[in-house]
Specification:
There is one protein chain. Helix 3 packs antiparallel against helix 4 and helix 12 packs across helix 14. A two-stranded antiparallel sheet has the order 1-2. The radius of gyration is 21 Å and the shape is globular. The chain has a single domain, classed as Up-down Bundle (Growth Hormone, Chain: A), CATH 1.20.1250.20. It has 481 residues and is mainly α.
Length: 481
């Protein structure tokens, strides 16, 4: 595929007719790596506990620290891309991600690994908003669904590869590295991706550059922290009083931050959170649909991993391989979603949602009937079918949220969308996870895990129905002039 002579949009962006496949591959490597490292620690938890003598609280911070820093920094990362250039931020973020991954692999204590994971999350927040921002700013609307379809493939495969490849690397114990290999693999990949990105990625120019909003960035990060930190460590700590105080404090923090953003808008400033984005009906409804989907997806991946390893006794590799067919079906769904959407419209997305919901219902029924004797085939097959539906739905939701966003606001919108997704994923893990653990304690013994997964799958079934309802609202929003 060759790149034809570019044109220029009214906003001052250079717009290429279509992004070459090799450029898109470099860009999407960041999405894959970011999702991979979000999920890979799940299968490494037993190894981390044995090698670093990590407590339950430390493990929660190792897993959740990345998610917290990632979610807290995404909007700022998007704004910095608008300010300094998407390519520059992408390369800086990718380089930092490789270096922080190296620091993770060298950690000699739980505290060091937590610190390195926080740095890893912040660097991911710098590079990942630039992916959607560059797609939105440089790919014209007719070609954009194809690029977003591949974005969905990279996102889903990264999440599933975190389970599959992570389990394989830990089990292989290459050069005696054990869990350290899951972080070391990022170093050469990140170095190559950074070099190729600097040489190949487009560099759209702006006539006007937005300013920074440090107070808004602090307020947004504090609001996210007030919710995600208690949700991350609250269960393992027995929900002490400070967790409830923090979550209650998030409400006035959010209100104060939004008031400051409105004030900056009124005086002609450049707020970090441009609340006028929410006046775009498709962005508002698309944001809600994406959040509901990620609430289901994050909780499903988390609870199913626990069932496979702690409940059914599979090792890291065996648990990872259960997700391998899901990786294939997700890719097929994401690639088929674009022509299906073009031909059938929202009916294709609703059909994907229905397939996911039905598959979750089948999984819940299989575990209810089989308990600890449930054959793996009755777990693998529904998971793969649900993943096929996910592949159809997720790229369509992302595209629907960004369809009416102006190119000059691409970084900000992408950061807000990614933040909503990660925040919702963390909430899903915390809430559905709490339901999962409650069911385990109620049922007692190994049999509690299938019962718990039945409850979790039922909750996820309900969340997918919410996604379907929000898709309908998004369609109505798109029709509203």
């Amino acid at each position: 595929m060759t790149q034809t002579a570019p044109g220029t949009s009214r906003s001052g962006h250079v717009v290429a007719p279509e992004m070459p496949a090799r450029v898109l591959a470099v860009l999407l490597s960041a999405m894959f790596m970011g999702q991979f490292d979000f999920f890979v620690v799940n299968v490494a938890a037993p190894s981390l506990r044995a090698d670093l003598h990590a407590s339950d609280g430390a493990l929660q911070l190792i897993v959740g620290g990345y998610a917290f820093a990632y979610a807290a920094g995404l909007v700022t990362g998007g704004r910095l891309g608008d300010l300094f250039g998407y390519r520059r931020l992408f390369v800086a973020g990718m380089t930092g991600f490789a270096l922080s991954s190296l620091a993770c692999s060298l950690a000699a204590s739980p505290g060091q690994l937590v610190a390195a994971r926080l740095a890893q999350g912040l660097t991911a927040a710098a590079m990942l908003p630039q992916v959607l921002a560059l797609i939105t700013a440089t790919v014209p609307a007719p070609s954009r669904p194809r690029a977003i379809g591949w974005y969905g493939v990279a996102s889903g495969l990264g999440a599933i590869a975190g389970q599959v490849l992570g389990g394989a690397l830990i089990t292989a114990d290459l050069a005696g590295l054990g869990w350290r290999a899951i972080f070391l693999v990022n170093v050469p990949v990140g170095a190559v991706a950074a070099i190729l990105a600097w040489r190949m990625l487009p560099n759209p120019q702006r006539r006007q550059r937005p300013g920074l909003d440090p107070l808004g960035a602090i307020g947004a990060a504090a609001t996210v922290a007030a919710v995600l930190v208690p949700l991350t460590v609250g269960r393992s700590e027995g929900w002490p009083a400070w967790t409830w105080v923090c979550m209650a404090a998030a409400i006035p923090l959010a209100a104060a931050t939004l008031a400051w953003q409105r004030h900056l808008t009124e005086i002609g400033g450049t707020p970090l959170l441009d609340v006028t984005l929410l006046r775009t009906p498709t962005f508002r409804s698309g944001l809600a649909a994406n959040a509901a989907f990620m609430c289901y997806f994050g909780s499903f991946m988390f609870t199913l991993t626990l069932l496979l390893q702690a409940g059914l006794g599979l090792d890291a590799l065996g648990a990872g391989l259960v997700f391998a067919p899901a990786g294939v079906t997700f890719s097929l769904g994401a690639l088929a979603g674009r022509p299906l959407l073009a031909r059938y419209g929202r009916r294709a997305v609703l059909a994907g949602s229905a397939l996911t919901a039905a598959s979750l219902g089948l999984l819940a029924l299989s575990l209810h009937l089989g308990g600890t004797h449930t054959a793996l085939a009755w777990i693998v097959a529904p998971t793969a079918l649900a993943s096929l539906g996910n592949g159809i739905v997720l790229p369509s939701l992302i595209g629907a949220a960004l369809v009416d966003v102006a190119p000059e606001r691409s970084g900000l919108a992408a950061g807000a969308l990614n933040t909503a997704q990660q925040f919702a994923s963390a909430i899903g893990v915390a809430t559905v996870g709490a339901l999962f653990f409650t069911a385990i304690h109620a049922a007692h013994g190994a049999f509690g895990y299938p019962v718990a997964m039945t409850w979790a799958a039922t909750a996820d079934f309900a969340l997918v129905l919410v996604v379907a309802a929000l898709i309908q609202l998004s369609v109505r929003a798109a029709r509203t002039p």
